[in-house]
Amino acid sequence: MLYFWDRFYHTVSENIRNAEACDWLSGPRVIKVPLVPLTPPSAPSEDFHSFIMGTILRALSFLALLCLAEAKQKDFYSFKLVNSRGRLVSLEKYRGSVSLVVNVASECGYTEEHYKDLQQLQKDFGPFHFNVLAFPCNQFGQQEPGSDKEIDSFVRRVYGVSFPIFSKIAVVGIGANNAYKYLVEASRKEPTWNFWKYLIDTDGKVVDAWGPEVSVKEIRPRIADMVRKLIIKRKEEL
């Protein structure tokens, strides 16, 4: 392409110089513009294809590393998640407290018993640096079909829930939320149904995990012991 414009420029310049050398009374001069055949662009070389593919692969690798780094946060309280009202919440606000993380569903056979017992936990231990953190999930039996607003309204109206309800997420599979990926990796226990319970200590580390067949009442003594020790520790620090 540069070669074409170079030839065009020199030819036109030469014609103009010839025209200026002639007597201006001899009439108009015709400037000949060369017709330079254009060579169609050649197909991209293999080196070009290799360069493009290499660039794409490097970009994808970088994105994968970012996702992996996020999934490998040092503890559960390092994550940020959206609550049922659409607000981004940093779990750092729960650092220093004991938490019970539960994937909940509104239409499960375990729903009523778990919600009632979870709310009782929150009522009894909430004032002493304890929180139930509920994460709606529709992956098991499609038993949480409602919107975040509908879920939040339902559990607060029917079960009087006062603990935090987060936005609906996936807890298993490729699309699992990174916070749950951390829980699974740390505990080596993956949810297989609704109402899996992960007990988190004050530093955001997973202490233990139980499936839905283990009732909240059964793990209550474990939670009570952790809360008791936390109360004693805080008193000693005063």
How would you describe the overall organization of this protein?
The chain has 2 domains: 1-39, no CATH class; 76-237, Glutaredoxin. It is α+β, with helices and mostly antiparallel strands. Strand 3, helix 3 (111-125) and strand 4 (130-136) form a beta-alpha-beta unit. Helix 3 runs parallel beside helix 6 (216-237). It has helices spanning 2-21, 46-71, 111-125, 148-158, 178-187, 216-237, and strands at residues 80-82, 88-90, 98-104, 130-136, 197-200, 206-210. It has a 4-stranded mixed sheet, with helices on both faces. The protein contains 6 helices and 6 strands.
Keywords:
238 residues; alpha+beta; Glutaredoxin; 2 domains; 12% strand; globular; disordered N terminus
Mean pLDDT: 85
Secondary-structure element series: HHEEEHEHHEEH
- Specify the CATH architecture of the largest domain: 3-Layer(aba) Sandwich
- The tally of structural domains comes to 2
Q: Largest beta sheet: what is the strand line-up?
A: 4-3-5-6
The H-level CATH homologous superfamily of the largest domain, spelled out, is Glutaredoxin
The helix tally amounts to 6
Compile the SSE list and pairings.
Elements: H1 2-21, H2 46-71, E1 80-82, E2 88-90, E3 98-104, H3 111-125, E4 130-136, H4 148-158, H5 178-187, E5 197-200, E6 206-210, H6 216-237
Please summarize what this structure is.
The protein is of the alpha+beta class. Helix content is 44%, strand content 12%.
